[in-house]
Amino acid sequence: MSYPRILIAAPVRQHPAILKEFLDSIRRLDINGLQISCAFIDDNDNADSSRMLQSFAFGEESVVTPAPQRPTVAYIRNDITHHWREDLIWRVAAFKDFLIECALESGFDYLFLVDSDLVLNPFTLQHLVACDKEIISEVFWTSWQPGQILMPQVWTQGQYELAWRRRDEKISPDESDRRILAFIRGLHQPSLTRVGGLGACTLIKRTALEKGVRFAEIDNLTYWGEDRHFCVRARALGVELWADSTYAPLHLYRQSLLDRVPRYVNWSSVDHWRHPSITLSMVVRNESGRYLEKALMRHREFIDRAVIIDDASEDDTVDIVTRCLHGIQTKIVRLPNSHFHNEVALRKIQWKETVETCPDWILNLDADEILEDGCGAAIRDWAHQTQYRYIGFSLFDMWDDYHYRDDALWNAHRRLWGFMFRYSPLLNYEWKESAQHCGRFPRSVEFFEMGCSNIRIQHMGWARRADRERKYRRYLELDPQGRHGSMAQYASILDESPHLVRWTESRLAAQEVL
Prior knowledge:
This protein is an alpha/beta fold. The protein has helices at 16-27, 47-54, 86-105, 124-131, 173-187, 206-211, 226-236, 261-268, 292-299, 317-324, 343-355, 376-384, 465-478, 487-492; strands at residues 5-12, 35-42, 61-66, 76-77, 82-83, 110-114, 118-119, 135-138, 141-142, 151-152, 192-195, 201-205, 241-244, 250-251, 278-284, 305-310, 329-334, 361-364, 369-371, 390-397, 403-405, 417-422, 450-459, 500-502. Strand 2, helix 2 (47-54) and strand 3 (61-66) form a beta-alpha-beta unit.
Protein backbone atom coordinates (compact mmCIF):
# COMPACT_ATOMS: atom_id res chain seq x y z
CA MET A 1 0.00 0.00 0.00
CA SER A 2 1.31 3.43 -0.95
CA TYR A 3 1.18 6.14 1.73
CA PRO A 4 1.20 9.88 0.95
CA ARG A 5 4.74 11.29 0.95
CA ILE A 6 4.98 14.62 2.76
CA LEU A 7 7.95 16.95 3.05
CA ILE A 8 7.83 19.09 6.21
CA ALA A 9 9.97 22.10 5.45
CA ALA A 10 11.00 25.52 6.78
CA PRO A 11 13.66 28.15 6.59
CA VAL A 12 14.84 28.50 10.19
CA ARG A 13 16.27 31.53 11.96
CA GLN A 14 15.03 31.06 15.49
CA HIS A 15 15.78 31.49 19.18
CA PRO A 16 16.86 28.11 20.65
CA ALA A 17 14.08 27.93 23.28
CA ILE A 18 11.37 28.52 20.67
CA LEU A 19 13.01 26.23 18.12
CA LYS A 20 13.08 23.41 20.68
CA GLU A 21 9.31 23.64 21.17
CA PHE A 22 8.76 23.72 17.41
CA LEU A 23 10.86 20.60 16.81
CA ASP A 24 9.33 18.78 19.76
CA SER A 25 5.86 19.43 18.32
CA ILE A 26 6.92 17.91 14.99
CA ARG A 27 8.07 14.80 16.84
CA ARG A 28 4.63 14.55 18.46
CA LEU A 29 2.77 14.63 15.11
CA ASP A 30 0.52 11.70 14.37
CA ILE A 31 2.03 10.35 11.13
CA ASN A 32 0.26 7.00 11.01
CA GLY A 33 -0.27 6.14 7.33
CA LEU A 34 2.03 8.96 6.14
CA GLN A 35 5.60 8.93 4.85
CA ILE A 36 7.36 11.94 6.33
CA SER A 37 10.65 13.62 5.53
CA CYS A 38 11.96 16.95 6.78
CA ALA A 39 14.02 19.66 5.10
CA PHE A 40 15.25 22.77 6.91
CA ILE A 41 17.34 25.67 5.69
CA ASP A 42 19.65 26.71 8.51
CA ASP A 43 19.71 30.50 8.48
CA ASN A 44 20.43 30.80 12.20
CA ASP A 45 22.77 33.28 13.80
CA ASN A 46 22.79 31.19 16.99
CA ALA A 47 25.08 28.16 17.21
CA ASP A 48 22.75 26.35 19.62
CA SER A 49 19.89 26.62 17.13
CA SER A 50 22.08 25.28 14.33
CA ARG A 51 23.20 22.33 16.45
CA MET A 52 19.59 21.62 17.37
CA LEU A 53 18.64 21.45 13.70
CA GLN A 54 21.60 19.26 12.76
CA SER A 55 20.74 16.71 15.45
CA PHE A 56 17.01 16.60 14.60
CA ALA A 57 15.74 13.31 13.21
CA PHE A 58 12.15 12.47 12.29
CA GLY A 59 10.34 10.31 9.75
CA GLU A 60 12.11 8.88 6.70
CA GLU A 61 14.95 11.39 6.67
CA SER A 62 15.86 14.88 7.83
CA VAL A 63 17.99 17.18 5.71
CA VAL A 64 19.47 20.46 6.90
CA THR A 65 20.86 22.79 4.22
CA PRO A 66 22.98 25.77 5.25
CA ALA A 67 21.79 29.12 3.96
CA PRO A 68 23.98 30.21 1.02
CA GLN A 69 25.10 33.42 2.73
CA ARG A 70 24.41 35.51 5.77
CA PRO A 71 21.77 38.26 5.43
CA THR A 72 23.10 41.78 5.08
CA VAL A 73 20.44 43.18 7.46
CA ALA A 74 19.79 41.78 10.93
CA TYR A 75 16.37 40.27 11.64
CA ILE A 76 15.24 42.13 14.75
CA ARG A 77 12.51 40.66 16.93
CA ASN A 78 11.62 41.39 20.51
CA ASP A 79 8.71 41.11 22.91
CA ILE A 80 6.95 43.92 21.08
CA THR A 81 6.99 42.79 17.46
CA HIS A 82 9.08 41.47 14.55
CA HIS A 83 10.81 43.89 12.16
CA TRP A 84 10.92 42.69 8.56
CA ARG A 85 12.95 44.42 5.87
CA GLU A 86 12.36 43.98 2.14
CA ASP A 87 15.59 42.10 1.48
CA LEU A 88 14.81 39.68 4.35
CA ILE A 89 11.34 39.01 2.95
CA TRP A 90 12.62 38.06 -0.49
CA ARG A 91 15.46 36.06 1.03
CA VAL A 92 12.83 33.94 2.80
CA ALA A 93 10.79 33.77 -0.40
CA ALA A 94 13.80 32.34 -2.23
CA PHE A 95 14.28 29.75 0.51
CA LYS A 96 10.65 28.66 0.25
CA ASP A 97 10.83 28.41 -3.53
CA PHE A 98 13.95 26.26 -3.13
CA LEU A 99 11.97 23.95 -0.85
CA ILE A 100 9.21 23.79 -3.46
CA GLU A 101 11.77 22.61 -6.03
CA CYS A 102 13.07 20.01 -3.56
CA ALA A 103 9.56 18.63 -3.07
CA LEU A 104 8.94 18.45 -6.83
CA GLU A 105 12.27 16.89 -7.72
CA SER A 106 12.01 14.27 -4.98
CA GLY A 107 8.47 13.23 -5.93
CA PHE A 108 6.64 14.28 -2.76
CA ASP A 109 2.83 14.31 -2.80
CA TYR A 110 2.67 17.28 -0.40
CA LEU A 111 4.84 20.08 0.89
CA PHE A 112 4.07 21.26 4.42
CA LEU A 113 5.61 24.71 4.88
CA VAL A 114 5.52 25.66 8.53
CA ASP A 115 7.11 28.55 10.43
CA SER A 116 9.57 27.61 13.15
CA ASP A 117 7.83 29.60 15.89
CA LEU A 118 4.73 27.38 15.88
CA VAL A 119 3.89 24.57 18.29
CA LEU A 120 1.75 22.15 16.30
CA ASN A 121 -1.21 20.11 17.47
CA PRO A 122 -0.43 16.40 16.98
CA PHE A 123 -3.48 15.94 14.74
CA THR A 124 -2.65 18.86 12.41
CA LEU A 125 -1.02 17.05 9.52
CA GLN A 126 -3.44 14.12 9.42
CA HIS A 127 -6.37 16.52 9.42
CA LEU A 128 -5.01 18.81 6.70
CA VAL A 129 -4.38 15.83 4.42
CA ALA A 130 -7.92 14.59 5.06
CA CYS A 131 -9.32 17.99 4.02
CA ASP A 132 -8.11 17.18 0.48
CA LYS A 133 -7.45 20.74 -0.70
CA GLU A 134 -4.69 21.89 -3.05
CA ILE A 135 -3.60 24.64 -0.65
CA ILE A 136 -4.76 24.79 2.95
CA SER A 137 -3.46 26.50 6.09
CA GLU A 138 -4.23 25.71 9.69
CA VAL A 139 -5.40 28.93 11.37
CA PHE A 140 -3.44 30.30 14.30
CA TRP A 141 -3.82 33.50 16.33
CA THR A 142 -1.43 36.31 17.21
CA SER A 143 -1.44 39.65 18.98
CA TRP A 144 0.78 41.49 16.54
CA GLN A 145 1.35 44.21 19.15
CA PRO A 146 1.08 43.75 22.95
CA GLY A 147 -2.43 44.47 24.14
CA GLN A 148 -4.03 44.04 20.72
CA ILE A 149 -6.75 41.47 20.14
CA LEU A 150 -5.77 38.15 18.62
CA MET A 151 -5.83 38.13 14.83
CA PRO A 152 -5.61 35.23 12.34
CA GLN A 153 -2.83 34.70 9.80
CA VAL A 154 -5.47 34.22 7.09
CA TRP A 155 -7.55 36.93 5.45
CA THR A 156 -10.24 37.50 2.85
CA GLN A 157 -8.64 39.71 0.20
CA GLY A 158 -6.18 42.52 -0.44
CA GLN A 159 -3.19 43.11 1.82
CA TYR A 160 -4.98 41.96 4.98
CA GLU A 161 -8.71 42.58 4.73
CA LEU A 162 -11.02 40.58 6.96
CA ALA A 163 -14.37 41.43 5.33
CA TRP A 164 -15.40 40.01 1.97
CA ARG A 165 -16.75 42.60 -0.45
CA ARG A 166 -17.13 42.96 -4.19
CA ARG A 167 -14.74 45.27 -5.97
CA ASP A 168 -17.48 47.81 -6.70
CA GLU A 169 -19.29 47.36 -3.39
CA LYS A 170 -19.51 50.25 -0.96
CA ILE A 171 -20.25 49.22 2.61
CA SER A 172 -20.72 51.24 5.79
CA PRO A 173 -18.28 51.00 8.71
CA ASP A 174 -20.97 49.13 10.68
CA GLU A 175 -21.45 46.60 7.89
CA SER A 176 -17.68 46.21 7.59
CA ASP A 177 -17.42 45.53 11.32
CA ARG A 178 -20.26 43.02 11.11
CA ARG A 179 -18.54 41.09 8.31
CA ILE A 180 -15.18 41.16 10.05
CA LEU A 181 -16.75 39.86 13.25
CA ALA A 182 -18.55 37.09 11.35
CA PHE A 183 -15.31 36.06 9.60
CA ILE A 184 -13.27 35.98 12.82
CA ARG A 185 -15.99 34.24 14.81
CA GLY A 186 -16.20 31.60 12.10
CA LEU A 187 -12.46 30.96 12.36
CA HIS A 188 -12.76 30.46 16.11
CA GLN A 189 -14.93 27.41 15.45
CA PRO A 190 -13.75 24.14 13.87
CA SER A 191 -14.47 24.86 10.22
CA LEU A 192 -13.16 24.83 6.66
CA THR A 193 -13.25 28.30 5.11
CA ARG A 194 -12.33 29.59 1.66
CA VAL A 195 -9.98 32.56 2.06
CA GLY A 196 -8.06 35.01 -0.09
CA GLY A 197 -4.78 34.87 1.79
CA LEU A 198 -2.89 32.52 4.09
CA GLY A 199 0.54 31.39 5.18
CA ALA A 200 2.97 30.07 7.76
CA CYS A 201 1.32 26.68 8.36
CA THR A 202 0.40 25.54 4.86
CA LEU A 203 -0.03 22.15 3.24
CA ILE A 204 0.43 22.32 -0.54
CA LYS A 205 -0.59 19.43 -2.76
CA ARG A 206 1.70 18.36 -5.60
CA THR A 207 -0.89 19.36 -8.21
CA ALA A 208 -0.59 22.98 -7.01
CA LEU A 209 3.20 22.81 -7.02
CA GLU A 210 3.15 21.54 -10.60
CA LYS A 211 0.86 24.38 -11.66
CA GLY A 212 3.59 26.81 -10.68
CA VAL A 213 2.74 28.27 -7.25
CA ARG A 214 5.76 30.20 -5.99
CA PHE A 215 6.73 32.86 -3.46
CA ALA A 216 8.85 34.93 -5.83
CA GLU A 217 8.01 38.62 -6.15
CA ILE A 218 5.39 39.70 -8.68
CA ASP A 219 7.05 42.96 -9.62
CA ASN A 220 3.89 44.87 -10.53
CA LEU A 221 2.23 43.99 -7.21
CA THR A 222 2.82 46.34 -4.28
CA TYR A 223 1.59 44.02 -1.53
CA TRP A 224 4.04 43.56 1.33
CA GLY A 225 5.17 40.05 2.22
CA GLU A 226 5.99 36.95 0.20
CA ASP A 227 2.80 35.15 1.31
CA ARG A 228 0.68 37.78 -0.53
CA HIS A 229 2.55 37.15 -3.76
CA PHE A 230 2.21 33.39 -3.31
CA CYS A 231 -1.55 33.72 -2.78
CA VAL A 232 -2.13 36.06 -5.73
CA ARG A 233 -0.14 33.74 -8.00
CA ALA A 234 -2.09 30.71 -6.74
CA ARG A 235 -5.45 32.33 -7.47
CA ALA A 236 -4.24 33.47 -10.90
CA LEU A 237 -3.37 29.83 -11.61
CA GLY A 238 -6.88 28.76 -10.59
CA VAL A 239 -5.89 27.24 -7.24
CA GLU A 240 -8.28 27.94 -4.36
CA LEU A 241 -7.02 28.85 -0.89
CA TRP A 242 -8.54 27.28 2.21
CA ALA A 243 -8.20 27.76 5.95
CA ASP A 244 -8.96 25.09 8.53
CA SER A 245 -9.59 26.02 12.15
CA THR A 246 -9.83 22.66 13.89
CA TYR A 247 -6.34 22.19 15.35
CA ALA A 248 -4.86 25.64 15.83
CA PRO A 249 -1.12 25.79 16.60
CA LEU A 250 0.31 27.90 19.39
CA HIS A 251 2.23 30.84 17.90
CA LEU A 252 5.32 31.70 19.95
CA TYR A 253 5.55 35.18 18.50
CA ARG A 254 7.29 36.35 21.67
CA GLN A 255 9.56 34.52 24.10
CA SER A 256 7.22 35.61 26.89
CA LEU A 257 4.67 33.14 25.48
CA LEU A 258 6.86 30.12 26.21
CA ASP A 259 5.12 29.59 29.55
CA ARG A 260 1.96 28.65 27.62
CA VAL A 261 3.60 25.63 26.01
CA PRO A 262 3.09 23.03 28.78
CA ARG A 263 -0.61 23.89 29.02
CA TYR A 264 -1.01 23.78 25.24
CA VAL A 265 0.80 20.44 24.98
CA ASN A 266 -1.41 18.96 27.68
CA TRP A 267 -4.55 20.45 26.13
CA SER A 268 -3.72 19.16 22.65
CA SER A 269 -2.42 15.74 23.67
CA VAL A 270 -5.90 14.19 23.45
CA ASP A 271 -8.64 14.79 20.93
CA HIS A 272 -10.75 16.96 23.21
CA TRP A 273 -13.19 17.82 20.43
CA ARG A 274 -14.30 14.18 20.18
CA HIS A 275 -14.20 13.38 23.88
CA PRO A 276 -14.87 16.66 25.72
CA SER A 277 -14.97 16.79 29.49
CA ILE A 278 -16.93 19.15 31.71
CA THR A 279 -15.25 20.85 34.67
CA LEU A 280 -17.43 22.44 37.33
CA SER A 281 -15.78 25.64 38.60
CA MET A 282 -17.24 27.16 41.75
CA VAL A 283 -16.45 29.65 44.52
CA VAL A 284 -17.84 28.77 47.96
CA ARG A 285 -17.90 30.52 51.33
CA ASN A 286 -19.74 29.52 54.50
CA GLU A 287 -22.30 27.40 52.65
CA SER A 288 -23.34 25.13 55.51
CA GLY A 289 -27.12 24.87 55.84
CA ARG A 290 -27.66 26.56 52.48
CA TYR A 291 -27.88 25.22 48.91
CA LEU A 292 -24.40 23.81 48.22
CA GLU A 293 -25.22 20.17 48.95
CA LYS A 294 -28.27 20.15 46.69
CA ALA A 295 -26.35 21.93 43.94
CA LEU A 296 -23.38 19.56 44.00
CA MET A 297 -25.54 16.44 44.14
CA ARG A 298 -27.46 17.70 41.10
CA HIS A 299 -24.37 18.70 39.15
CA ARG A 300 -22.25 15.64 39.88
CA GLU A 301 -24.52 13.68 37.54
CA PHE A 302 -22.92 15.23 34.42
CA ILE A 303 -19.54 16.70 35.39
CA ASP A 304 -16.18 14.94 34.96
CA ARG A 305 -14.14 16.99 37.45
CA ALA A 306 -14.44 20.03 39.67
CA VAL A 307 -12.39 22.99 40.85
CA ILE A 308 -13.69 24.52 44.08
CA ILE A 309 -12.32 27.75 45.53
CA ASP A 310 -13.10 28.03 49.23
CA ASP A 311 -13.03 31.71 50.14
CA ALA A 312 -11.82 31.29 53.73
CA SER A 313 -14.94 29.51 55.01
CA GLU A 314 -15.41 29.34 58.77
CA ASP A 315 -17.77 26.34 58.77
CA ASP A 316 -17.83 22.82 57.30
CA THR A 317 -18.19 23.94 53.66
CA VAL A 318 -15.10 22.01 52.53
CA ASP A 319 -16.42 18.85 54.20
CA ILE A 320 -19.67 19.22 52.27
CA VAL A 321 -17.72 19.54 49.02
CA THR A 322 -15.58 16.51 49.81
CA ARG A 323 -18.59 14.38 50.69
CA CYS A 324 -20.79 15.41 47.76
CA LEU A 325 -18.06 15.10 45.12
CA HIS A 326 -16.62 11.83 46.39
CA GLY A 327 -15.44 9.79 43.40
CA ILE A 328 -15.08 12.82 41.13
CA GLN A 329 -11.63 14.32 40.48
CA THR A 330 -11.79 17.49 42.55
CA LYS A 331 -9.29 20.28 43.17
CA ILE A 332 -10.08 22.25 46.33
CA VAL A 333 -8.20 25.51 46.88
CA ARG A 334 -8.58 26.94 50.38
CA LEU A 335 -7.84 30.66 50.58
CA PRO A 336 -6.42 31.79 53.96
CA ASN A 337 -8.03 35.22 53.64
CA SER A 338 -11.40 36.09 52.13
CA HIS A 339 -11.61 37.99 48.83
CA PHE A 340 -15.38 38.33 49.20
CA HIS A 341 -15.31 42.13 48.92
CA ASN A 342 -13.17 42.16 45.78
CA GLU A 343 -14.95 39.97 43.25
CA VAL A 344 -12.55 40.43 40.35
CA ALA A 345 -9.60 39.29 42.47
CA LEU A 346 -11.56 36.22 43.54
CA ARG A 347 -12.67 35.42 39.99
CA LYS A 348 -9.10 35.70 38.73
CA ILE A 349 -7.99 33.16 41.32
CA GLN A 350 -10.85 30.88 40.33
CA TRP A 351 -9.95 31.19 36.64
CA LYS A 352 -6.23 30.58 37.20
CA GLU A 353 -6.80 27.48 39.33
CA THR A 354 -9.36 26.13 36.86
CA VAL A 355 -7.33 26.56 33.68
CA GLU A 356 -4.29 24.98 35.33
CA THR A 357 -6.25 21.70 35.23
CA CYS A 358 -6.35 21.93 31.39
CA PRO A 359 -10.15 21.80 31.13
CA ASP A 360 -12.24 21.34 28.01
CA TRP A 361 -15.60 22.85 28.99
CA ILE A 362 -15.80 25.03 32.09
CA LEU A 363 -19.23 25.13 33.75
CA ASN A 364 -19.04 28.12 36.06
CA LEU A 365 -21.73 28.11 38.74
CA ASP A 366 -22.08 29.73 42.12
CA ALA A 367 -22.93 27.71 45.20
CA ASP A 368 -26.54 28.94 45.18
CA GLU A 369 -27.17 28.24 41.47
CA ILE A 370 -28.87 24.91 40.71
CA LEU A 371 -29.39 23.54 37.24
CA GLU A 372 -32.90 22.21 36.74
CA ASP A 373 -33.52 18.52 37.16
CA GLY A 374 -33.16 16.36 34.05
CA CYS A 375 -30.81 18.64 32.08
CA GLY A 376 -27.79 16.30 32.15
CA ALA A 377 -28.29 14.93 28.63
CA ALA A 378 -28.75 18.45 27.28
CA ILE A 379 -25.53 19.63 28.96
CA ARG A 380 -23.65 16.71 27.42
CA ASP A 381 -25.06 17.44 23.98
CA TRP A 382 -23.86 21.02 24.18
CA ALA A 383 -20.42 19.79 25.23
CA HIS A 384 -20.20 17.57 22.14
CA GLN A 385 -21.26 20.16 19.58
CA THR A 386 -18.53 22.21 17.89
CA GLN A 387 -20.41 25.21 16.50
CA TYR A 388 -20.36 27.25 19.72
CA ARG A 389 -17.81 27.55 22.49
CA TYR A 390 -19.80 29.87 24.79
CA ILE A 391 -23.20 28.61 25.94
CA GLY A 392 -26.02 30.64 27.45
CA PHE A 393 -28.51 29.47 30.09
CA SER A 394 -31.54 31.20 31.59
CA LEU A 395 -31.16 32.37 35.20
CA PHE A 396 -34.24 32.65 37.43
CA ASP A 397 -33.99 34.66 40.65
CA MET A 398 -35.99 32.56 43.09
CA TRP A 399 -37.83 34.54 45.79
CA ASP A 400 -38.74 31.36 47.66
CA ASP A 401 -38.43 27.64 46.92
CA TYR A 402 -41.31 27.68 44.42
CA HIS A 403 -41.48 31.17 42.86
CA TYR A 404 -39.18 33.45 40.91
CA ARG A 405 -39.40 37.22 40.69
CA ASP A 406 -40.50 38.79 37.40
CA ASP A 407 -40.79 42.56 37.02
CA ALA A 408 -39.06 45.51 35.37
CA LEU A 409 -36.01 45.27 37.61
CA TRP A 410 -35.87 41.50 38.07
CA ASN A 411 -36.03 39.80 34.69
CA ALA A 412 -32.68 38.08 34.21
CA HIS A 413 -34.58 35.00 33.02
CA ARG A 414 -35.73 36.83 29.89
CA ARG A 415 -32.26 36.65 28.35
CA LEU A 416 -29.38 34.17 28.26
CA TRP A 417 -26.25 34.36 30.37
CA GLY A 418 -22.98 32.61 29.61
CA PHE A 419 -22.37 29.79 32.09
CA MET A 420 -20.35 27.31 30.02
CA PHE A 421 -17.21 28.00 27.98
CA ARG A 422 -14.84 25.77 26.02
CA TYR A 423 -11.37 26.73 27.20
CA SER A 424 -8.42 27.25 24.86
CA PRO A 425 -4.84 28.09 25.92
CA LEU A 426 -4.41 29.92 22.60
CA LEU A 427 -6.46 32.94 23.62
CA ASN A 428 -5.73 36.02 25.70
CA TYR A 429 -8.11 36.46 28.62
CA GLU A 430 -8.81 39.89 30.10
CA TRP A 431 -11.15 40.79 32.95
CA LYS A 432 -13.53 43.61 33.60
CA GLU A 433 -11.66 45.32 36.44
CA SER A 434 -14.57 45.83 38.80
CA ALA A 435 -14.74 45.05 42.50
CA GLN A 436 -18.39 43.99 42.06
CA HIS A 437 -20.28 42.52 39.07
CA CYS A 438 -17.09 41.77 37.11
CA GLY A 439 -18.57 38.67 35.48
CA ARG A 440 -17.84 35.02 36.13
CA PHE A 441 -15.69 34.65 33.00
CA PRO A 442 -13.07 37.00 31.51
CA ARG A 443 -14.78 39.53 29.29
CA SER A 444 -12.82 38.12 26.34
CA VAL A 445 -15.26 35.20 26.09
CA GLU A 446 -18.08 37.57 25.17
CA PHE A 447 -16.42 37.98 21.77
CA PHE A 448 -17.75 34.55 20.81
CA GLU A 449 -21.24 34.01 19.50
CA MET A 450 -23.35 32.46 22.24
CA GLY A 451 -25.11 29.15 21.78
CA CYS A 452 -28.71 29.55 22.94
CA SER A 453 -29.77 26.66 25.16
CA ASN A 454 -33.11 25.92 26.83
CA ILE A 455 -31.33 25.02 30.06
CA ARG A 456 -32.54 26.88 33.16
CA ILE A 457 -30.87 27.69 36.45
CA GLN A 458 -32.56 28.42 39.76
CA HIS A 459 -30.67 31.15 41.56
CA MET A 460 -31.50 30.54 45.21
CA GLY A 461 -29.47 33.43 46.60
CA TRP A 462 -32.58 35.59 47.01
CA ALA A 463 -34.94 32.85 48.20
CA ARG A 464 -34.80 33.68 51.93
CA ARG A 465 -35.73 37.02 53.41
CA ALA A 466 -32.69 36.99 55.66
CA ASP A 467 -30.45 36.56 52.62
CA ARG A 468 -32.14 39.43 50.83
CA GLU A 469 -31.66 41.73 53.79
CA ARG A 470 -28.02 40.71 54.08
CA LYS A 471 -27.38 41.32 50.38
CA TYR A 472 -29.17 44.66 50.53
CA ARG A 473 -26.84 45.83 53.29
CA ARG A 474 -23.84 44.43 51.46
CA TYR A 475 -24.57 46.27 48.20
CA LEU A 476 -25.12 49.57 49.99
CA GLU A 477 -21.84 49.09 51.82
CA LEU A 478 -19.73 48.02 48.83
CA ASP A 479 -21.39 50.11 46.12
CA PRO A 480 -23.11 53.11 47.77
CA GLN A 481 -23.13 55.15 44.55
CA GLY A 482 -24.34 52.32 42.31
CA ARG A 483 -21.23 52.47 40.13
CA HIS A 484 -21.12 48.69 39.67
CA GLY A 485 -24.85 48.03 39.61
CA SER A 486 -28.28 49.67 39.78
CA MET A 487 -29.38 51.73 42.79
CA ALA A 488 -33.00 51.20 41.77
CA GLN A 489 -32.53 47.45 41.83
CA TYR A 490 -30.73 47.61 45.16
CA ALA A 491 -33.67 49.54 46.63
CA SER A 492 -36.16 47.03 45.23
CA ILE A 493 -34.58 44.09 47.03
CA LEU A 494 -36.77 44.68 50.08
CA ASP A 495 -40.04 45.24 48.18
CA GLU A 496 -42.90 43.87 50.28
CA SER A 497 -45.09 42.75 47.37
CA PRO A 498 -42.92 41.74 44.40
CA HIS A 499 -44.47 40.09 41.35
CA LEU A 500 -43.75 36.36 41.64
CA VAL A 501 -44.30 33.52 39.14
CA ARG A 502 -44.62 29.84 39.96
CA TRP A 503 -41.61 27.70 38.95
CA THR A 504 -42.42 24.57 36.95
CA GLU A 505 -39.93 21.90 35.94
CA SER A 506 -39.48 21.46 32.19
CA ARG A 507 -37.70 18.07 32.14
CA LEU A 508 -35.48 18.91 29.19
CA ALA A 509 -34.83 16.25 26.61
CA ALA A 510 -31.49 16.33 24.79
CA GLN A 511 -33.10 16.67 21.36
CA GLU A 512 -34.83 19.88 22.46
CA VAL A 513 -31.53 21.70 22.85
CA LEU A 514 -29.61 21.61 19.61
